[in-house]
């Protein structure tokens, strides 16, 4: 089965100086970089997803802003696909499925941000489309959230999403477990 690496929304907006800083984003980007480097060295195709808001009132991911740019450590090179999305789900109203099909991709490895939003949406959509999916948990990041007066730390948000994936959607691995040992 031909594998494709999907790098979701590792953009400047999520850095500590961005408008939506994520817990552990630097470590997640460093791990994603290892996965991307391995893919490039072995010829696996890499598909970069970049979120651009179609509603400037949101205040982040504004087209043309510094925040919307992909973080330099994981920027696309050469002919790597860049898919711009305006929705949480990277498959919705984008060329992602068409690009995967054009490259003969049958299995996906997913890294990026935010675990509980865009990663969640793309994993579930991919599985619904028939792709076997592996999520590399330490190459993903999220943030603290709250609901009904309950504050939920990012680590718990991330763990809950990864547990849900592992329960019924995807293989969940660390980058060390995914990458071959030297």
UniProtKB/TrEMBL annotation:
Domain Isochorismatase-like: 4-145
UniProt KW Hydrolase keyword: yes
Classification via Pfam families: Isochorismatase
Superkingdom of source: Bacteria
Keywords from the UniProt entry: Hydrolase
Annotated GO MF terms: hydrolase activity
Matching InterPro entries: Isochorismatase-like_dom, Isochorismatase-like_hydrls, Isochorismatase-like_sf
Catalytic class of the enzyme: hydrolase
The protein's Enzyme Commission number: 3.-.-.-
Protein name listed in UniProt: Cysteine hydrolase family protein
Organism taxonomic ancestry: Bacteria, Pseudomonadati, Pseudomonadota, Gammaproteobacteria, Pseudomonadales
């Amino acid at each position: 089965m031909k594998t494709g690496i999907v790098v979701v929304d590792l953009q400047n907006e999520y850095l500590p100086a961005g408008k939506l800083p994520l817990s552990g984003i630097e470590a997640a980007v460093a791990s994603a970089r290892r996965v991307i480097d391995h893919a490039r060295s072995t010829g696996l195709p890499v598909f970069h997803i970049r979120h651009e808001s179609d509603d400037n009132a949101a205040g982040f991911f504004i087209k043309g802003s510094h925040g919307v740019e992909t973080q330099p450590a994981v920027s696309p090179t050469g002919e790597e696909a860049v898919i711009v999305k305006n929705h949480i789900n990277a498959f919705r109203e984008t060329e992602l499925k068409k690009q995967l099909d054009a490259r003969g991709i049958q299995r996906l490895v997913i890294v990026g941000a935010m675990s509980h939003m865009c990663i969640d949406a793309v994993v579930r959509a991919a599985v619904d489309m028939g792709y076997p999916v592996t999520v590399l948990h330490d190459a993903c990041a999220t943030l603290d959230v709250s609901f009904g007066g309950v504050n939920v730390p990012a680590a718990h948000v991330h763990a809950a999403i990864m547990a849900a994936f592992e329960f019924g959607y995807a293989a969940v691995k660390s980058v060390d477990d995914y990458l071959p040992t030297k």
